[in-house]
Design goal:
The structure holds 2 protein chains of 2 kinds. By secondary structure, chain A is mainly α. Chain A has a single domain (about 5-35, about 50-215), classed as MetI-like fold (Orthogonal Bundle), CATH 1.10.3720. Helices cover about 75% and strands about 0% of the residues of chain A. The longest helix of chain A has about 30 residues, at about 5-35. Chain B folds into 2 domains: about 5-240, P-loop containing nucleotide triphosphate hydrolases (Rossmann fold), CATH 3.40.50; about 245-364, OB fold (Dihydrolipoamide Acetyltransferase, E2P). Chain B starts with a strand and ends with a strand. In chain B, about 40% of the residues are buried. The chains are: A mainly alpha, B alpha+beta. The interface of A and B includes residues 114, 120, 134, 135 and 139 of A.
């Protein structure tokens, strides 16, 4: 069992999910509330990673963060090393790759919150931010949880993007799926099966628990 | 000029009517104003504009000396800073908070000790102590309404806006809560605006009525006047009650209620009239008024026999509308044939008969 790859994948997925929560919630709120006429373009861009082959996404991210791009140059100037074939580069790619899996459930969940509850909160003197944290978030919680689980599981299983951006550096960019690929290449089917089965089991359990909770109408979130 | 709330709001909705509303409500003394009209007329939009939930480039709202909105000058005070109370049609209770949590929601600016005091005071006032720890989905319709009222009143609003406050309730609950709500509203001594499409509600709850039709306020006057003297035929159709008079309740027993309109007594059959009510509106449909002429003595089954003088006769389609002076103005609707048979003319003395079940009372 390639524990270093498993550890790396978990770290990548956790950080990606966390950052998607921080970036995705404001984006989803904006998508839910905005009446901007060009909003559909943003929606299309957010959804793009679902239909795009990971190699295409990986290729452009690689170009965008590479040593010839302004982003890559700025990053290198500040930190002293480049983004490609680093954990940080992988993180950026993962965030883009899993963006729709977070933002779409977030947006749907926020949209499902009755607008009148938001307005009731405003009329009771609470600002937009307070309303978001005290009304929208608790009520949209099941959908937000779905987004968290999906982006975690999706990042955990990513392969093509990792290969394009991260390559295959043990302990730095060799994630579970790359490790499995390695084992299969080396015709070590038993080791590949161990890791693959673990990933399969984990993904199934997480999804089963999530959908199970949703079916119960998520009694989990009821403070006090 | 006395302090007032004034609103000018003009907006065209893509799939709705053009809203073009002008409204002025005196604040001193505070009155209950009912925005009344058919559904889709724009009543709720006007209410939402007052709350700051609906905006338009053409909107001016002033409350006493404050300007809440003057969009041409870029002035817009958001709902948070208007200190208003808004009761939503289906109450919009926070389902993730308990009854006490809902009431507390608007009180976060207060210190914890004052919050507790105010919450217990409100829970007691609205008889919600026993359900304080419950969640909204565990409450009856009437309880939900009381929670919504308590939550709305908790931050001590300066203006109360109610959107169809009784429409989410079933029949019997609605009847009971109607008179309770009137008592509550008059006890608050803040201006109140209520949206309703229900005549009985308008009569029972309002001091003034603003009739809203196709986005405009077409008549704004005391309740009895609007229902008795609609300005136009269109308004008459909307309000649809011919005779509405303010009355004092004299006596109520055995299903018969005696009321006085001015000096004239009327008897109404109404077994479910709430006891202890001192005032009511008497409603009589013009077609329920029977007229007799040239009678010295009469024995009739009708409980109400009112001598009166014909003031005017006016043709309305196949019918004639006769206005009588019986100590108050009573409108009767007669067929053309009946009118000819009676040979009715102005200043004729007649006797008007109304059966007690046709005298409708709305307590307030």
């Amino acid at each position: 069992m390639d524990w270093s790859a498993i550890g790396l994948s978990l770290r990548l997925s956790t950080l990606t999910t966390l950052l998607l929560l921080i970036l995705g919630l404001p984006l989803a709120s904006w998508l839910a509330a905005s009446r901007w006429r060009w909003k559909f373009l943003v929606e299309a861009v957010v959804t793009l990673p679902i239909v795009l082959p990971p190699t295409v996404l990986g290729f452009y991210v690689l170009v965008a963060i590479g040593p010839h791009s302004p982003i890559g140059q700025a990053y290198a100037a500040i930190t002293g090393h480049g983004l490609p074939f680093s954990f940080q580069g992988l993180l950026i790619a993962s965030i883009l790759y899993s963006l729709p899996f977070a933002v779409q459930p977030f947006t749907a969940a926020i949209l499902a919150v009755d607008q009148r509850l938001i307005e009731a909160s405003w009329c009771l003197g609470r600002g937009r931010l307070a309303t978001f944290f005290e009304v929208t978030l608790p009520l949209a919680w099941p959908g937000i949880l779905t987004g968290i689980v999906l982006s975690f599981a999706h990042t955990l299983g990513e392969f093509g993007v990792v290969l394009m951006i991260g390559g295959n550096l043990a302990g730095i960019t060799r994630t579970i799926s790359i490790s499995i690929f390695d084992k299969v290449e080396a015709l070590d089917y038993a080791a590949a099966n161990q890791t693959a089965f673990l990933l399969l089991l984990f993904s199934f359990l997480v999804l089963a628990i999530t959908y199970g909770l949703q079916r119960k109408g998520i009694a989990v979130w009821r403070p006090r | 000029m006395a302090a007032s709330l004034s609103l000018y709001f003009r907006k065209r909705f893509p799939k709705g009517p053009l809203i073009d509303a002008n409204l002025q409500v005196g604040l001193d003394p505070p009155v209950v104003t009912v925005l009344f009209g058919p559904s889709g007329a724009g009543k709720t939009t006007i209410l939402r504009a007052l709350a700051g939930l609906e905006r338009s480039a053409e909107c001016v709202i002033r409350f006493a000396h404050e300007t809440w909105a003057d969009e041409k000058d870029g002035v817009f005070i958001p709902p948070q800073r208007r200190r208003i109370g808004f009761l939503f049609q289906d109450y919009a209770l926070f389902s993730h908070l308990t009854v006490a949590g809902n009431v507390r929601y608007g009180l976060r600016a207060l210190p914890a000790s004052e919050q507790r005091l105010r919450i217990s005071e409100l829970l007691k006032r609205f008889q919600l102590q026993d359900v304080a720890a419950r969640y909204p989905d565990q409450l009856s319709g009437g309880q939900k309404q009381r929670v919504a009222l308590a939550r709305t009143l908790a931050p001590d609003p300066r203006l109360l806006l109610l959107d169809e406050p009784l429409s989410a309730l079933d029949g019997p609950t609605r009847e009971t809560l109607r008179s309770e709500l009137r008592k509550l509203l008059t006890s608050l001594s803040i201006p109140v605006l209520i949206v309703t499409h229900d005549r009985v509600e308008a009569l029972a709850l309002g001091d003034h009525v603003a009739v809203v039709d196709q986005g405009r306020i077409v008549q704004h006057a005391p309740v009895a006047e609007v229902f008795r003297r609609p300005l136009t035929a269109a308004i008459a159709k909307i309000v649809g009650v011919d005779n509405v008079h303010h009355a004092r309740v004299l006596q109520a027993d055995q299903g018969l209620v005696t009321v006085a309109v001015g000096n004239v007594c009327l008897i109404a059959a109404r077994s479910d009239f709430p006891s202890g009510m001192k005032e009511a509106f008497v409603c009589v449909r013009a077609e329920d008024v029977l007229l007799l002429k040239n009678v010295e003595t009469v024995s009739a089954s009708a409980r109400n026999r009112l001598p009166g003088i014909v003031k005017s006769l006016k043709q309305e389609g196949p019918m004639w509308r006769i206005e009588l002076d019986c100590g108050f103005t009573l409108s009767a609707l007669l067929t053309h044939q009946a009118c000819e048979e009676l040979a009715l003319e102005q200043n004729d003395a007649v006797l008007a008969l109304i059966k007690a079940p046709n005298v409708h009372l709305i307590p307030r």
